[in-house]
Amino acid sequence: MSHSELLNQGLTEIVAALSRHDVSAVELATAYLDRIDQAQPDLNAFITLDREHSLRQAAIADKMRAGSSGAKLAGIPIVQKDVFCAKGWRTTAGSRMLENFIAPYDAHVVERLNEHGFVTLGRANMDEFAMGSSNENSYFGPVKNPWDVTRVPGGSSGGSAAAVAAGLAPAATGTDTGGSIRQPAAWCGISGIKPTYGRVSRYGMIAYASSLDQAGMFARSAQDLAVLMDVISGHDSRDATSVNRQDPPCAEGLDRSIRGLRVGLPKQWMGEGLSAGVKSVIEKAIQELMALGCECVEIDLPMSEQAIPAYYVIAPAEASSNLSRFDGVRFGHRAAEYKDLSELYERSRGEGFGPEVKRRILMGSYVLSHGYYDAYYLQAQRVRRLIANDFERAFTQCDVIAGPVAPTTAFPLGSYGADPVQMYLADLYTIPVNLAGLPALSVPAGFDAGMPVGLQLIGPWWHEARLLQTAHAYQTTTDWHTKRPTHYSGVTK
Amino acid sequence: MRFTEEDVRRVARLSRLALEPKEIKGFQQDLSQILDLAQKLQAINTSNVEPLAHPGSTSVFLRSDTVTETNQREAFQAVAPEVDRGLYLVPRVVE
User: Fold this and answer.
1) In A, which residues are within 8 Å of B14 by CB distance?
2) Nearest by CB to A341, which of B23, B52, B93?
3) CB contact under 8 A, A362 and B75
4) Per residue in A134-177, pLDDT tens?
5) pTM for the complete prediction?
6) Whether the complex's predicted ipTM surpasses the cut of 0.85
7) In chain A, what are the domain boundaries?
8) For the structural domain made of A3-243+251-302+390-488, what CATH number should be given?
9) Which residues of B touch A385 (CB under 8 A)?
């Protein structure tokens, strides 16, 4: 197998090639970095690239492999969403506010990946502070979808998804607050998982809405996601919401049969609002699951239509609180001119934040302010409980829930320029999952007019393994996850 | 509800955000739209429903109250806009 072919393979093949010494970690990183340099002007998937830093890490990985450390994953290249603090790397969160911020410490996720010898290829572009569904809210410019560069890759983890889809890396980190892993995974035709809230430590992950934020992964298959989940999961005392549990590794029992698995189909999700093209892809995917021996049951999620209103109260409220740390004093952008301390705060924040971030901070301050707290914030939290209850009830009738990730495929850049709030409404199938804190993933399930469509699978709390088994079974009888945008994968057809 | 210009200025003040005059009009419209969205929640009967602040977690992890971090003042202040002898500099607040 040539190096160029290897770059398009999954983690199993890459690890095997490294173990056989067919390729070194340094050679592998170099080959990917060369590809990144070629694609970057078209896709803008990266905010920061630092070849020297990456190759230093690769050299360490080669040493780890040569030693007796048992570092079997050492040398796997990975792309980091620019929201995870990584020592010595510029960490911007897609914002002018952090344009010159060099993180002084590693996020938990980064630390775990480094310990295993993963090699960071670069820092992926994203919507500013992870607020957005199209990656058009980045201070560093939009990311383009590798399947069609006139379209968005989805967001907020758009750079991560585009990089993996374009064959610029075999895996990438992401975060998902309202769909920010699943939706770009779906729109870029790759696999992506958002774990149970509390499974992966949020330490060092720049916060947007802390009760919803969860770190996860992008890769080319469910099998690869399982390997990566086992690296980043686990208790961390530096995140008070990190849950201390001993779960069996996700990669174990991945081949288990899904015969008899009860798949719940939310009756609210396949009707009005879902495009005909996406609907027909999802219906075929469900048939495929039935062919694998799954039973389908209709389930009822009556409160799920309240998820978007509840989210746009809760998430801005938490954001306005979290982002108050950017004050122009301890880190981040400071305005050049100010006459007193208030003006220093106000101007630094006014200059440092982009429009979507300001919009959400303003909304958050409003719903938390005197006289509105009960009517909006507390009411939203009560509705949140009802949404979670819907899922709990549904999981007495089924083992996993299946449905669409998004109502359409990726839209053209600039589609919502004049009406940003309209874009919020498209997250109707992903947001309920974050409000309930459930694990969910997206796997490629086909195409609509040449653009990829993702199948969403949602599980009960802590049942990532079941989701990955289901996705893996699906991927052993389908080949959607192997489709690549030929232009960017060194593949000529 | 419609956000007036004064409403936007008020929440901007609460948020410590300096806004350009031309931004205010846009936010009036956007915030009104988001609030219309949020308004839908008012129709839901939530009497006897406990608010859900954090999903799933029944107990929050506590750790013992001991110092585990070393002093890294220099590393943290290396990314500060303005420091002097270990202190963060801001405009004078007390005359």
Assistant:
1) 365, 369
2) B93
3) no
4) 999 999 999 999 999 999 999 999 999 999 999 999 999 999 99
5) 0.97
6) yes
7) 3-243+251-302+390-488
8) 3.90.1300.10
9) 49-52
